[in-house]
């Protein structure tokens, strides 16, 4: 399956895949501890608008923690995280502002099981954004068509396949009109035949210019869609490069070892 999305992306319109000079996320000298465990060490990372970054690395290297720090699902202890010009700090107004611009999609889709697909997609727009119901439903249907499951709108999550549920989770995020999307292993809980449909949805988002940070081990996706691949190990960014060079000429021994294990 890694080849199929690659083709789709390579045939995308390059003009749509431009990266701007504008900074979407700036992380500088950031550290995080869980108790006495130093989980993220001196993280420096600047993400420009329109970038599509794939983060990979061994299990336990801090990938999820890094992603979760960006919308304050985890709190960092030192250094700066600035999203869209807003500093992530103890000011809850800033946290809210950043969360409203950042969408997130996890390995487990976290849909509300007792709500229909449509209701899952309209809940936050109606209650958080105060969007009128009719407008929220129109927006939800727009994004459900985009992820190619509008006909599932009145079903419940349990009636959908894993791949369909993950696409609902993506649509639900998009309904909040995020400027940045974070993905944490969105395909790793899916059966192989469903991985492609989710990756295709992500490729489409990338082609439309969405700024994306994706933790994934789908290296076909990384090669096709990412403009930058970041390798993490033991809480540090060990190496980063554009995908072709990253895969062809990994510089550190740790990266080489990792790639030899997954490719
Ligand atoms: P990855 O996503 O790369 O697998 P994580 O960010 O999930 O890594 O975890 C990094 C390290 O932090 C691991 O050693 C993990 O056990 C530890 N860790 C993750 N979450 C917590 C937590 N809430 N409390 C304590 N340790 C944690
Ligand atoms: Mg993880």
From TrEMBL:
Domain of life according to the entry: Bacteria
GO molecular function: ABC-type amino acid transporter activity; ATP binding; ATP hydrolysis activity
Keyword terms, alphabetized: ATP-binding, Nucleotide-binding, Transport
InterPro entries: AAA+_ATPase, ABC_ATPase_HisP-typ, ABC_transporter-like_ATP-bd, ABC_transporter-like_CS, MetN_ABC_transporter-like, P-loop_NTPase
Gene3D superfamilies from the UniProt entry: P-loop containing nucleotide triphosphate hydrolases
Chain ranges of the ABC transporter domain: 25-259
Name of this protein: L-glutamine ABC transporter ATP-binding protein /L-glutamate ABC transporter ATP-binding protein /L-aspartate ABC transporter ATP-binding protein /L-asparagine ABC transporter ATP-binding protein
Organism: Pseudoroseicyclus aestuarii
């Amino acid at each position: 399956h890694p080849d199929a999305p690659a083709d789709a992306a390579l045939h995308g319109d390059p003009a749509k895949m431009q990266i701007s000079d504008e900074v979407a996320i700036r992380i500088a000298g950031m550290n995080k501890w869980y108790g006495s465990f130093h989980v993220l060490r001196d993280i420096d990372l600047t993400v420009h608008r329109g970038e599509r970054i794939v983060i990979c690395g061994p299990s336990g290297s801090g990938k999820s923690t890094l992603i979760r720090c960006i919308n304050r699902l985890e709190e960092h202890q030192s250094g700066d995280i600035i999203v869209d010009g807003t500093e992530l700090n103890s000011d809850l107004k800033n946290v809210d502002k950043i969360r409203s611009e950042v969408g997130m999609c996890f390995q487990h889709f976290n849909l509300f099981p007792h709500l229909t697909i449509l209701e899952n997609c309209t809940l936050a727009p109606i209650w958080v954004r105060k969007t009128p119901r009719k407008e929220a439903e129109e927006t939800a249907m727009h994004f459900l068509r985009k992820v190619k499951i509008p006909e599932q709108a009145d079903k419940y999550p349990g009636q959908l396949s894993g791949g369909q549920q993950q696409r609902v989770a993506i649509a639900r995020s998009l309904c909040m009109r995020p400027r940045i999307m974070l993905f944490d292993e969105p395909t790793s809980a899916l059966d192989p035949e469903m991985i492609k449909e989710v990756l295709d949805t992500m490729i489409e988002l990338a082609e439309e210019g969405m700024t994306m940070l994706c933790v994934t081990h789908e290296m076909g996706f990384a090669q096709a869609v990412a403009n930058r691949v970041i390798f993490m190990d033991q809480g540090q960014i060990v190496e980063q490069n554009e995908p072709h060079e990253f895969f062809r000429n990994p510089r550190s021994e740790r990266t080489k070892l990792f790639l030899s294990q997954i490719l």
